[in-house]
Design brief:
By secondary structure, the protein is an alpha+beta fold. Helix content is 54%, strand content 8%.
Protein backbone atom coordinates (compact mmCIF):
# COMPACT_ATOMS: atom_id res chain seq x y z
CA UNK A 1 0.00 0.00 0.00
CA UNK A 2 1.14 3.53 -0.83
CA UNK A 3 -0.21 6.54 1.05
CA UNK A 4 -0.02 9.92 -0.67
CA UNK A 5 -0.28 12.62 1.97
CA UNK A 6 1.13 15.69 3.65
CA UNK A 7 2.78 15.55 7.05
CA UNK A 8 0.34 17.97 8.69
CA UNK A 9 -2.82 17.00 6.81
CA UNK A 10 -5.50 16.00 9.30
CA UNK A 11 -7.13 13.67 6.78
CA UNK A 12 -3.87 11.89 5.96
CA UNK A 13 -3.12 11.64 9.69
CA UNK A 14 -6.42 9.81 10.26
CA UNK A 15 -5.44 7.22 7.67
CA UNK A 16 -1.96 6.81 9.19
CA UNK A 17 -3.62 6.18 12.54
CA UNK A 18 -5.89 3.55 11.01
CA UNK A 19 -2.99 1.81 9.28
CA UNK A 20 -1.00 1.94 12.49
CA UNK A 21 -3.64 0.56 14.83
CA UNK A 22 -4.13 -2.35 12.43
CA UNK A 23 -0.40 -2.95 12.13
CA UNK A 24 -0.37 -2.51 8.35
CA UNK A 25 2.85 -1.58 6.57
CA UNK A 26 2.77 1.10 3.89
CA UNK A 27 4.98 3.39 1.82
CA UNK A 28 4.56 7.15 1.82
CA UNK A 29 4.63 9.67 -1.00
CA UNK A 30 4.82 13.30 0.13
CA UNK A 31 2.40 15.75 -1.47
CA UNK A 32 3.40 19.28 -0.47
CA UNK A 33 0.13 21.18 -0.16
CA UNK A 34 1.87 24.51 0.40
CA UNK A 35 3.82 24.20 -2.86
CA UNK A 36 0.75 22.97 -4.78
CA UNK A 37 1.83 19.38 -5.45
CA UNK A 38 -1.82 18.34 -5.10
CA UNK A 39 -2.56 20.09 -8.40
CA UNK A 40 0.15 18.28 -10.37
CA UNK A 41 -0.89 16.09 -13.27
CA UNK A 42 0.47 13.02 -11.51
CA UNK A 43 -1.62 13.61 -8.39
CA UNK A 44 -4.76 14.62 -10.28
CA UNK A 45 -4.53 11.34 -12.16
CA UNK A 46 -4.92 9.59 -8.79
CA UNK A 47 -7.51 11.98 -7.35
CA UNK A 48 -9.21 14.49 -9.68
CA UNK A 49 -10.29 16.46 -6.59
CA UNK A 50 -6.66 17.36 -5.97
CA UNK A 51 -6.80 16.45 -2.29
CA UNK A 52 -4.96 14.17 0.11
CA UNK A 53 -4.91 11.47 1.25
CA UNK A 54 -4.87 8.94 -1.55
CA UNK A 55 -4.24 5.29 -0.78
CA UNK A 56 -3.02 3.09 -3.60
CA UNK A 57 -3.91 -0.54 -2.99
CA UNK A 58 -4.32 -3.52 -5.33
CA UNK A 59 -4.14 -1.30 -8.41
CA UNK A 60 -6.83 1.10 -7.16
CA UNK A 61 -6.54 4.66 -5.87
CA UNK A 62 -8.84 5.42 -2.93
CA UNK A 63 -9.65 8.94 -1.72
CA UNK A 64 -11.52 10.57 1.18
CA UNK A 65 -10.10 9.59 4.56
CA UNK A 66 -13.24 8.08 6.09
CA UNK A 67 -13.91 5.98 3.00
CA UNK A 68 -10.31 4.75 3.09
CA UNK A 69 -10.53 3.90 6.79
CA UNK A 70 -13.79 1.99 6.36
CA UNK A 71 -12.22 0.07 3.46
CA UNK A 72 -9.31 -0.86 5.69
CA UNK A 73 -11.69 -1.85 8.47
CA UNK A 74 -13.67 -4.13 6.18
CA UNK A 75 -10.61 -5.73 4.65
CA UNK A 76 -8.56 -5.96 7.85
CA UNK A 77 -11.20 -6.27 10.58
CA UNK A 78 -8.90 -6.81 13.57
CA UNK A 79 -8.97 -4.66 15.61
CA UNK A 80 -12.36 -3.25 14.56
CA UNK A 81 -12.81 0.50 14.28
CA UNK A 82 -16.62 0.36 14.35
CA UNK A 83 -18.92 -1.35 16.85
CA UNK A 84 -20.57 -4.65 16.04
CA UNK A 85 -24.13 -3.28 16.36
CA UNK A 86 -25.87 -1.01 13.87
CA UNK A 87 -26.78 1.65 16.45
CA UNK A 88 -23.21 1.82 17.71
CA UNK A 89 -21.84 2.12 14.18
CA UNK A 90 -24.25 4.95 13.41
CA UNK A 91 -23.20 6.83 16.54
CA UNK A 92 -19.49 6.43 15.88
CA UNK A 93 -19.89 7.52 12.27
CA UNK A 94 -21.86 10.58 13.43
CA UNK A 95 -19.07 11.55 15.84
CA UNK A 96 -16.44 11.05 13.15
CA UNK A 97 -18.42 13.13 10.66
CA UNK A 98 -18.79 15.93 13.19
CA UNK A 99 -15.10 16.53 12.58
CA UNK A 100 -14.55 15.21 9.07
CA UNK A 101 -17.63 16.86 7.53
CA UNK A 102 -18.53 19.75 9.84
CA UNK A 103 -15.35 21.13 11.41
CA UNK A 104 -12.26 20.19 9.44
CA UNK A 105 -13.46 21.33 5.96
CA UNK A 106 -14.18 24.83 7.29
CA UNK A 107 -10.62 25.26 8.50
CA UNK A 108 -8.44 23.59 5.91
CA UNK A 109 -5.79 25.42 3.92
CA UNK A 110 -7.82 26.07 0.77
CA UNK A 111 -10.67 27.60 2.83
CA UNK A 112 -8.26 29.85 4.71
CA UNK A 113 -6.74 30.99 1.41
CA UNK A 114 -10.19 31.73 0.00
CA UNK A 115 -11.19 33.75 3.05
CA UNK A 116 -8.04 35.84 2.74
CA UNK A 117 -7.99 36.16 -1.03
CA UNK A 118 -11.67 36.48 -1.99
CA UNK A 119 -13.13 38.04 1.16
CA UNK A 120 -10.00 40.00 2.16
CA UNK A 121 -10.18 38.61 5.69
CA UNK A 122 -7.13 39.43 7.78
CA UNK A 123 -5.37 36.94 10.05
CA UNK A 124 -7.46 37.93 13.07
CA UNK A 125 -10.71 37.36 11.20
CA UNK A 126 -9.57 33.98 9.89
CA UNK A 127 -8.54 32.93 13.40
CA UNK A 128 -11.93 34.02 14.73
CA UNK A 129 -13.60 31.90 12.01
CA UNK A 130 -11.46 28.87 12.90
CA UNK A 131 -12.06 29.22 16.63
CA UNK A 132 -15.82 29.45 16.17
CA UNK A 133 -16.19 26.28 14.14
CA UNK A 134 -13.62 24.28 16.08
CA UNK A 135 -15.18 25.18 19.41
CA UNK A 136 -18.64 24.37 18.08
CA UNK A 137 -17.64 20.89 16.92
CA UNK A 138 -15.50 20.02 19.92
CA UNK A 139 -18.26 21.11 22.29
CA UNK A 140 -20.67 18.66 20.69
CA UNK A 141 -18.07 15.88 20.92
CA UNK A 142 -17.48 16.63 24.59
CA UNK A 143 -21.20 16.06 25.15
CA UNK A 144 -21.08 12.93 22.97
CA UNK A 145 -18.30 11.52 25.13
CA UNK A 146 -20.30 12.29 28.28
CA UNK A 147 -23.24 10.26 26.95
CA UNK A 148 -21.50 7.44 25.07
CA UNK A 149 -17.86 7.43 26.03
CA UNK A 150 -15.74 5.30 28.29
CA UNK A 151 -12.00 5.35 27.87
CA UNK A 152 -12.60 6.64 24.34
CA UNK A 153 -15.29 8.58 22.49
CA UNK A 154 -17.52 5.53 22.23
CA UNK A 155 -16.97 2.83 24.80
CA UNK A 156 -13.61 1.53 25.90
CA UNK A 157 -11.79 0.77 22.66
CA UNK A 158 -10.39 3.32 20.18
CA UNK A 159 -12.37 3.63 16.97
CA UNK A 160 -13.07 5.69 13.89
CA UNK A 161 -14.18 8.78 15.80
CA UNK A 162 -11.04 8.84 17.95
CA UNK A 163 -8.87 8.76 14.81
CA UNK A 164 -10.62 11.96 13.70
CA UNK A 165 -10.42 13.61 17.11
CA UNK A 166 -6.64 13.47 17.57
CA UNK A 167 -5.70 15.56 14.50
CA UNK A 168 -8.45 18.07 15.23
CA UNK A 169 -7.14 18.77 18.73
CA UNK A 170 -3.68 19.29 17.20
CA UNK A 171 -5.18 21.80 14.76
CA UNK A 172 -6.99 23.59 17.55
CA UNK A 173 -3.70 24.10 19.38
CA UNK A 174 -1.99 25.28 16.20
CA UNK A 175 -4.47 28.11 15.96
CA UNK A 176 -4.49 28.98 19.64
CA UNK A 177 -7.88 27.63 20.69
CA UNK A 178 -8.03 27.00 24.44
CA UNK A 179 -9.08 23.43 25.18
CA UNK A 180 -9.79 23.54 28.92
CA UNK A 181 -13.53 23.24 28.21
CA UNK A 182 -13.01 19.72 26.82
CA UNK A 183 -11.56 17.58 29.62
CA UNK A 184 -13.02 14.31 28.32
CA UNK A 185 -11.55 14.87 24.87
CA UNK A 186 -8.14 15.65 26.34
CA UNK A 187 -8.22 12.48 28.44
CA UNK A 188 -9.00 10.43 25.32
CA UNK A 189 -6.16 12.11 23.46
CA UNK A 190 -3.72 11.35 26.28
CA UNK A 191 -4.66 7.65 26.23
CA UNK A 192 -3.98 7.44 22.51
CA UNK A 193 -0.78 9.49 22.68
CA UNK A 194 1.12 6.82 24.58
CA UNK A 195 0.57 4.08 21.97
CA UNK A 196 3.38 3.25 19.57
CA UNK A 197 1.10 3.42 16.54
CA UNK A 198 -0.22 6.88 17.42
CA UNK A 199 3.30 8.19 18.00
CA UNK A 200 4.39 6.82 14.61
CA UNK A 201 1.46 8.58 12.91
CA UNK A 202 2.16 11.99 14.48
CA UNK A 203 3.07 14.75 11.99
CA UNK A 204 6.48 15.31 13.58
CA UNK A 205 7.37 11.66 12.88
CA UNK A 206 6.67 11.87 9.13
CA UNK A 207 9.47 11.81 6.55
CA UNK A 208 8.32 15.11 4.99
CA UNK A 209 8.05 16.94 8.31
CA UNK A 210 10.34 19.99 8.31
Amino acid sequence: MILHGYWRSSAAWRVRLALGIKGLGFEQVAVNLVQGDQRSAAHLALNPQGLVPVLEVDGAALSQSLAIIEYLDERFPDPPLLPADALGRARVRAAALTIAAEVHPLGNLRVQRWLKGELQADDAAVTRWLHHWMHDGLSSLEQFAAHHGGSFLYGNTPGLADLCLVPQLYNARRFGLLLNAFPRLLEIESRLAVTDWAQAAHPDAQPDSP
